[in-house]
UniProtKB/TrEMBL annotation:
A biological process term (GO) from this entry: mitochondrial respiratory chain complex II assembly
Pfam families the record matches: Complex1_LYR
Protein name, UniProt field: Complex 1 LYR protein domain-containing protein
Organism: Raphidocelis subcapitata
Location of the Complex 1 LYR protein domain: 8-66
Keywords on record: Chaperone, Mitochondrion
Subcellular location(s) per record: Mitochondrion matrix
Amino acid sequence: MQISGVARSVLSLYRQVLRAARRHDPTTRKHVEAFARAELEKSRGVSKTNVQQIEHLLRKGQRQLSQLQDPAFAQFRWGGTAE
């Protein structure tokens, strides 16, 4: 089965997020993985012909990946509590 270019981009972004999540503590990793999966599922219903929305979601995902890879993200605490 062949995968379209768009689907390949989505899967690539998802894998990059999962790899970036590995660099964080186990709790943060779980939250990031759950968030990434939820976003992927939420976007599943987007029509394959709606190129603008797909491109928007991919750019949004790339920005979020950049934030995740930022060293300052290591200071982020889920649930709003800073330690």
